[in-house]
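SAMPLE LOG
Freezer: B-3
Tube label: C17
Construct: single chain, 481 aa
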Amino acid sequence: MIVRPNFCGRVHRREFLHQIGGGFTSLALAGMMSRDGAFAADVPYDNPLAPKQPLLPAKAKSVIFLFMYGGPSHMDTFDYKPKMYPLDGKSIPIKTFGRGGKKNEGRVVGPKWKFQQYGQSGKWVSDLFPNVGSCVDDISFIHSMTAESPIHGSAMLMMNSGSLLSGKPSMGSWVNYGLGSLNENLPGYVVMLDKTGGPISGAKNWSSGYMPASYQGVVFRSQGNPILNLENRPGMDRVQQRSLLDFLGDINKSHLKGREHNSDLAARIASYELAFRMQATAPEAIDVDDEPEHVKKLYGMDGTRTDDFARKCILARRLVERGTRFIQIYSGGAHNDDNWDAHGDLVKNHEFHAGNTDKPIAGLLKDLKQRGLLDETLVIWGGEFGRQPTAEYAEGTGRDHNAYGFTTWMAGGGIKGGTTFGETDELGGEAVRDRVQVKNLHATVLQQMGLDPNHLSYFYGGLDQKLVGVEGADPIKEIIA
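STRUCTURE (predicted):
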């Protein structure tokens, strides 16, 4: 039995209120007595999001995952391939595998932007990302990432949850399961979607899977009310609502007696309390309009094309400051050119999405650094896969999906800045040196957060389930400071 609140009903502690005369003052007294334990069922329960000590020395306290949904082209962004330019338009023998199936030859699409060197490291970066280019000495670029699927749905699930199949907990859920939350008034795992909508597979990408629902991602909006359906019903103030929740909590805790290991029920109790506290704290946390003008300018929150993503990046920084463990921001939503999935006009697609995100991302890195937060915040950039060096169609510049080799980068959180790891071939078709898989990325994130990726497990279905799979995975040691 789980008692759920119904804010449209009239549930109160009738017996107690009747004895003391009822009315508004009795509601207030009931609320205060409940918080003092007068009505407590004296049943202990474990809060699923209670803070936990990391098992390993932790380099990072929070993660911000900048997810470029659709698959950005690595050879047009951060993986410089000068030998591709003179091959533009020429057909060559090359094995590719994307949504169009397996092919043995194709027409090369040379990079459509020039590259320049940045920073002391001299890293080559496309003209698509001049602002991020100014941050390269804080970034480690992984050019040899590989995935197990060239199809959006399964590849996104793999990048987010370590599995091609749905129903598994996402990386943010694993982090919250292993470490708990640092702020009892905000979710430990927040997701911000693109204004065009969510990605394919939807909420499966931030699901808690077989874990209690307390670990799943909470979708925040960057404008307006941060979370829908969080307001009180008309005519009910916080004192009345507090009394109602205390009453429901007593019943649920009473039912929990003898069932102390029922994590679903404990999660339900904790979720009611978190929702109540969020009504007061979430609006303040999301008030990015209150930021100083110089901060807004740094991120590009200026009413132009960068405004939307800038708001999300500022909000991510504010959440990190307030103890949220895992934040994921999506660039791109829905389908086709609403995301980075450049099957047709590569230039139109990537100039649009890079132009929306370049300045906000650089602003985030610089702002975290100047506040002393970058050292303890792990920032990740990447999509579910990359793109092929050849054209998908007989005409045009569109590229098909490429899971054989693509770029992901990481910064902060104990990552060695100004470094490059791995390599794709001279056309960017596949990883040829220091190949790593998505699970190696996951292992790196967990280790930097102080969690042992090969021992962090959750028993389900008769197995000790792990984010990195039952076979385990090693972190990418070469990029760790």
